[in-house]
Amino acid sequence: MELALVLPVLMLLLVGVVELGRGLYQNHILAKAAESGARYLSREPGALDWESCAEGENWGEGVERATRLVVFGDPFGTTDPLVPNLGTENVTIEGLGPEPISGEGMAGSPCVIRVRAAADFDPVIATGEFLPLGDLVLRAMAEERYVGE
Question: For the TadE-like domain, which residue ranges apply (predicted)?
Answer without folding.
Answer: 2-39
